[in-house]
């Protein structure tokens, strides 16, 4: 009986050691996966900025603004553009900072905190971009309607017809909603999947009891 008791105690000790090794392996795997996910979030955000920069370079927005002959509008749009780039660069810096923190951390609690912080940062980034998209769309419609000389004839027609004016406003609102929905789906496809995987890692870490 004493020998059996000794075997049971020895088995329990070995079982505990196997559990600790397993948990450490799980932590390493989650750590590696989380680091990879945040790295991709950083890469996608940089590629997104490059895409919009190249798109703006080949667009004819500047020519359209100069055609209106309102330097104050050009100045305002340039300030808005630089402000937008500054905010996005700040977000990218936070993405990179979160990536470095997750890559170098050795603490489970720190890793869990960094995962939650990264998710919030990405969510703020997406909602900022969607909000800026709506603001830019409304401003573009307004500036084009009020200041574009090619719109003079349409302005006169709409001023004489209230129903046509309401219909035009409704169409513009619908276009804005469609544009918002389209980009929301794109962001959900790009970042949503990564965030779900990241949160799944967070839930797995909660099960580990170091």
From TrEMBL:
UniProt keyword list: Membrane, Transmembrane, Transmembrane helix
Highest taxon of source: Bacteria
Transmembrane segments: 37-54, 74-96, 125-147, 167-190
Keyword Transmembrane assigned: yes
This protein's name: Beta-carotene 15,15'-monooxygenase
